[in-house]
Amino acid sequence: MLQSGVPILISALSCLLLALGFALNWGGDDAVRIVDGIAFAAFGAYAAVCAVVAARAAHGRNRLAWTTMAIALAAWTLGELTRAYLTLVLERSLFPSPADFLYLVFVVLAPVAFLQFPAEPTQGSRIRLLFDALIVATSLFLVLWVVVLGNVYQATGVGPAEQGRALLYPLFILFVFVGAVVFVVRSGAGNSIVMWLLMGGVTLMAFSGVAFAVLQGSNRYHPGHITSIGWVLGMSCFGAAALLSRRPRPPVPPTPVPQSSIALWLPYVPLLIAGTVAPAIVMTGLLRVLVPILMTLICARQVLSGWENRRLLAAAADQALRDPLTGLANRTLFQDRLAHAMALRGRDNRCVAVLSLDLDDFKLINDSMGHPAADSLLIRVGERIAGCLRAGDTVARLGGDEFALLLEGDVDDAHLVCERVIAAFDTPFLIDGHEVLMRPSAGMAVTSLTDNDITAEDLVKRADTAMYFAKRSRNSMVHTFSADMTLLDPDIEELARDGEPRSAKSGAEQVRLLGELRRTIDRGGLDMVYQPKLDLETGRITGVEALLRWPHPRLNVLRPGAFMPLILRHGLMRPVTDLVFRKVLDDCARWVSMGLDIPVAVNLFAPLLRDARLPDTVRRLLQERNLSPGLLTIEITEDLMLDEVGRVTGVLQQLRDDGIRIAIDDFGSGYSALSYLRDLPIDEVKFDRHFIASVATDARAAAVVSAVIDLTHNLGITVVAEGVEDAETASWLREHGCDIGQGYYFSMPISSAEVSALVAAQARP
Q1: Cα separations (Å) of 196 from 48, 179, 238, 261?
Q2: DSSP SS3 for 693
Q3: In total, how many domains does the chain have?
Q4: Residue 718 forms beta bridges with which residues?
Q5: Per-residue model confidence (pLDDT) at position 123
Q6: What DSSP designation does 324 have?
Q7: Which of 359, 337, 354, 357 is nearest to 462 (CA)?
Q8: Contacts (Cβ under 8 Å, ≥6 apart) of 109
């Protein structure tokens, strides 16, 4: 920051000028003595003000830490002012003086402030940290005692006041230095500048403290001594650290293993110094050599053990963040890197893209070739995708056959990577000696410069939405998310035609919709409407088809396409079928009571045809209402029964023997088999709307439909055309012998009361 750089630069230049003044004795001894008394307090005040500024800009524990540091520096400043007053005004040198007690406040609060700074997660136990601090403190005290304090303590020519001051100040700074070491060990890479400035400040103060003790012990210290510049430089470092702490820290991806190696070697440096310097001074003979060597070996052994443990932890952490099958990143690592990329985007306005990729028809590989072959395919797919990426890109296997790519940088480059990934699937995979051509569905979401509120979760959801679009379209190209895209969920189909309300998109909304559907079924809240079926020759109503509707309180009236997949997937076929039969047959009985025999057709879920008890159930429902079986037609969808013909034939034959008509619905919409016309006991064939849509304009389509009409008539089967929407199609069907027509051209679906009114009106002369 420019605003932070100006005061830091001014303080650094002031320190340089002050050092030159002390070294060159500018202005003589009196001037230097005055500057020595005032400058220390001025720099202390500067550091305290900077700490206050940092506290106001910080939050949480950082604010508490800088507030405590500001109080500590203020106490130091007051101590310097007190010392200046005593030496310059009163010209007295007291020990202990009020200044010493204020220094003691700084000594106590500064380590407390260091401990208040938030630590990086998983940096080790507090007990180990305590032992590290004790090792550092004991080692440094031993060095100070051998080098400085012991000599001062034993000096005979030094007065008690000078001796006490010489001993106290190094011990003060030693205490603060240990707190700073603990702070460095607990801090992470994201706080490195502030960390090293604070550590540097304490180290400079420690240097001046030790120099003061040495000079004071030999009666050579005087105000303005060049060695005292360390106190001023230390305060300048404190101020710079406080100002720079306001800068936003670069995001560091969370990791269970510390990345910095400072904690490994830092606690052993003072021990190594104590074990080498002290014996060299106080010991003699062979011990003077062997003890330092032994201490060096012990410290080296401990550091190496720490490095080995760190390497093992890193390997374990890497395995926890990798997919065990493919070796790619797993969901946790992908989310961490995506969060890191999104944080950097907020700082640098860089582009972040996510590609969601899902293998098409992977279940077929699992079912036909087995799980080992499917696992081998996933490994090959992961290798092929990884080979298309740039350095810095991330590919993850999220589970099953789902992969995700994180791409940073230029948007065009991200698109090129995606195109390379899709092109890589053009080459077949060799699995168990077989060539397997696998295609992916891929959806891409890219951050925009204007969309500042997008989160990592939103970006992944957008990529998934685009991927679902790609899967529905069966298109191998990469679909990029756009604002008008809507997630087509496999459980809830969205039909926009004729005012069909949009279905729920999120998982939570699907759960909510399923719960509402269950309650509606339990209460019998689904409604029936009926679409008339007309004799194409006479134009009279020959019957109706029952259609299901859900009058939803929030989404208006839902058609089957919006909720039928939920019924199929969540085991609701039986209760819905029972509800439909009750409602339809109740309406039919009401029409009969009015003197109107109106045949009604009911769609039946194909899996229910496996139930051998179905004919008895339908027979009982008809008998309870005194209805003729000939009034009921059961429609079955032909493309759901390809492998079930043998099992359902017996059930259909029983229904037909009871007098119930059987119809094949949507004939021509799926994998039609003419063998159905031969093998199944059926009375009607209903042509699908798409099968007859172009008969009036396409000669080839007309020829096919005409041939099928003739074929079914030869088999004694009635032909029904559904989805008739225009006069030209109706006229063509009439001319070519189609028996019954049904569709919007004749009538929209109507209520039960409207059916009876319409049929009654037709019955009048």
Answers
A1: 18, 13, 10, 14
A2: coil
A3: 3
A4: 684
A5: 46
A6: T
A7: 354
A8: 68, 69, 71, 72, 75
Above 80 in pLDDT, residue 86?
Answer: yes
Residue 473 and residue 513 in one domain: no
pLDDT greater than 50 at residue 495: no
Q: How far is CA 574 from CA 561, 607, 670, 675, in A?
A: 18, 10, 24, 29
Token pair recorded at residue 373 = 């072959």
Whole-structure pTM over 0.85, yes or no? no
Query: Are 557 and 549 spatial neighbours (Cβ–Cβ below 8 Å)?
Result: yes
How far is it, in rounded angstroms, from Cα 402 to Cα 389? Answer: 17
CB-based contact 43:37 (threshold 8 Å): no
Residue range(s) defining the domain that contains residue 275 = 2-248+263-282
Side chain identity at 524, as an amino acid letter?
Answer: G
CA-wise closest residue to 356 among 318, 405, 392? 405
At residue 440, what is the residue type?
A: P
Question: At 504, which helix (H) or strand (E)?
Answer: none
Does residue 405 contact residue 386 with C-beta atoms inside 8 Å?
no
Distance CA 509, CA 363 (A): 27
267 pLDDT band, cuts 50/70/90, is low
- Which ranges constitute the DSSP H helices of 59-159? 60-84, 98-116, 126-144, 150-154
CATH number for the domain including 337?
3.30.70.270
Higher pLDDT, 363 or 315: 363
The backbone torsions φ and ψ at residue 399, rounded to the nearest 5 degrees and listed phi first, read: 145, 145
In this structure, the answer to whether residues 616 and 555 fall within a common structural domain is yes
Please tell me whether residue 443 adopts helix, strand or coil conformation. Answer: strand
Chain length of the chain: 765
Listed in sequence order, the DSSP H helices in 192-286 are 192-217, 229-244, 262-265, 268-282
Q: Is the pLDDT of residue 581 over 60?
A: yes
Please report whether residue 688 resides in a domain: yes
Closest by CA to 695, choosing from 674, 537, 687, is 687
500 falls within a domain: no
Give the helix/strand (H/E) hosting 321.
none
How many degrees, rounded to 5, is the angle at CA 129 between CA 128 and CA 132?
90
Q: Are residues 230 and 83 in the same domain?
A: yes
Name residue, tokens 């109107």.
596
Looking at residue 385, its pLDDT comes to 92
585: Cα separation from own chain's centroid: 52
Are residue 345 and residue 476 in the same domain, yes or no?
yes
pLDDT attached to residue 108? 81
Q: Is residue 294 part of a domain?
A: no
* Residue whose structure tokens are 């985007």: 345
Q: How far apart are CA 741 and CA 618, in angstroms?
A: 27
Verify that 572 and 651 share a domain, yes or no. yes
Here the tokens at position 7 are: 């005061």
Amino acid at 156: T
Distance of CA 165 to CAs 55, 159, 217, 531, 548, Å?
33, 10, 9, 105, 96
- Residue 360 and residue 271 in one domain: no
In which residue are the tokens 């991927």 written?
Answer: 467
One domain, residues 27 and 174: yes
| The one-letter amino acid at 155 | A
Q: What is the pLDDT of residues 390-409, one digit of tens each?
A: 888 999 998 888 999 999 88
**Are residues 201 and 238 located together in one domain of the fold?**
yes
Higher per-residue pLDDT: 361 or 584: 584
- Choose among 718, 668, 710: nearest CA to 690: 668
Q: Are 760 and 596 in contact (CB under 8 A)?
A: yes
- Quote the mean pLDDT of the chain: 78
Strands annotated E in 670-717: 684-687
Looking at residue 513, its pLDDT comes to: 78
Check pLDDT > 70 for residue 712: yes
Examine residue 257 and state whether it is found in any structural domain, yes or no: no
